[in-house]
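Notes to self after the call with IL:
- keep both proteins in one doc
- input above output, always
- annotate only the second one for now

Protein 1:
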Amino acid sequence: MGGGSVAAFSAALSAALLEKLVHDPAAARRLGAVRRECLALLDRDAEAFARVIRTTRRKDRRAFRAALQAATEVPCRVFEHAQRVQAACRAAQQAVKPRFQSDLRCAMAVAIAAGESARTLIHTNLAWLNDPAYAKRIRRRLQAAG
């Protein structure tokens, strides 16, 4: 398990914790969907990065760039989901009972950690790719997410 998997698992955990705290069924369904997708991203991250490693061994620059761009998609999705969980935490703040506010703060802290971890991985991949146009698209996507 690498950093992307850890970030995805953290986002899934924060969504699961918040899912149990919210009373709005629609919000709970959205958080459940985030949790499930982030858990699926665990395997996608491992597979995607294994492809990156294989392409480095073949010394095929074109295949490497394609594999690394595909691998960058995982932390991008994690970042977007972490931003959604953070927004849901803020939205739930007034509705969550005082005795559960510590769980809400925990969900927020883990969502923030997941987002920052994902952002770090994205920036590392972008530096490794050294493709300014692609980097600009990804940075715009991150700004739009949060």
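Protein 2 (the one to annotate):
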Amino acid sequence: MNENKLLRRQIIDPAVADLISGMDQKQAEMQMPRRERMKKKREQAKIFARREQRATYDLPPSLRQEVKQIAERERVPASQIVTLALIHFVNQYTSGQIDLSLYKQPSRSPRYDWNLILPISLIKKLEQ
């Protein structure tokens, strides 16, 4: 006889699933030794404090690699290299030295009016 029984799938509301997983996580944390709980709490506080300083951007791989190489060569964090580069960009943009209209093309996205299309010549310079 075939033992394959049809099992009914439980459908759980995502909010309820999040609540249950949060409760499970809290219970697991409470079972940890006090020293480990305190260490984890400090780490979470450190991550939360840095949240305002963090950002995520899509970058061409060749640009990321170049930033990484500069950071290694200069022995400084890559994020500080990028911060310096962005400060220079913002200063040049606000003083009118950079014209973004040269790179703008209409966007199909309902969120943005324009996309910046970077010339291949700029990207190829990075790859050399």
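Annotation: The chain is about 55% helix and 5% strand. The chain has two domains: 14-53, 61-127.
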